[in-house]
Design brief:
Distance between the termini: 56 Å
Strand content: 25-35%
Order of helices and strands: HHHHHHHEEEEEEEEEEEEEHEHEEHEE
Radius of gyration: 25 Å
Number of strands: 18
Amino acid sequence: MNIRNSGMNLFENIKFGSIIGKYLTGNETPEESGQIKKLVEKDKRNRELFNRLNKKEHIASAIENFESYNGEPAWKRYTDRLSMLVLKKRLYQWKVAAVIFLLIGISGFFAYLKVGVLDSVEKKRLYTTVTSPAGQNSRIVLPDNSVVWLNSTTTLSYNNDYSIKNREIKLSGQAFFQVERNEKIPLIVKCKGLNVKVLGTRFDVSGYPEDHTVSVVLESGSVELGHEKEKSVDLFLKPGDKAEFDSDSKHLSVNHVDTYRFTSWKDGVVIFKNDPMDKVLEKLERRYNIEIEVKDPEIRKLIFNATIINETVVEIFDLIKFTCSVDYQIIRSKDPEVPEKVILKLIK
């Protein structure tokens, strides 16, 4: 579903569509009135849309359009599927709510301002979402035969027009892309505001929600970088380049690096080379799906060097203990949903 300029998901759109429909027919609860008030006050465009929907002649026109394309079968399926919400009360009132749902939930809250009330019902855009479990890497093949490796707790999504009208991908986490070349439809990876545009190449993008940076490492081919808000971010990367954008300072840096150090994770290899312990612990938490508690803040400033392939949690922390004089304690969890905990403190 393509909800443009809105942070609401499908359920929220259905919910707000029905609430607004109830408001227009005088059947909202006090709590729902408060929700509508927050929604309208949240954004000027929300307020403009609500004012237009609140006009009686606009509702009448919308209902007329709604019934003109024989919405009864769809309406029946909709009410049957959501019967637990008791949507069969007063059919006329809920037809109004259905019109509002179509405007908000299907076409998108602000698309309405551009196309008018049901001038055309936008094709429902569905998304395929893939998430790599904590502590595991995943490999997927996209509809255009591009191959993507997903690091631990990474989410990737693309819509049903992928490889037909677009090759747009939304990414949260870290992924390595081996992209099939297509001169007509470039592939665009969107991650935390950064847009990575390619035709066919091999590259890595990393941008977890908790990180304040997004990095792109180019192994081969070429990559064009842009940003949704920062117009100054506009450059091409060459093989061996690593670009890093700091979302706090808005600073973009580019350095030439050994790319395998940043892409080896897809092969099950993690390389630490003069890395601060703070970053090392973040990667270990993701790789092993563990929680690490640091008792002494000085530990985070230590430097660590190692190459991890098949080491166990005990083996890697034995190495940290030997090289950095950091003692550890592992607290096992009996609940599979709760990760193991590792407590670190300096050896004094």
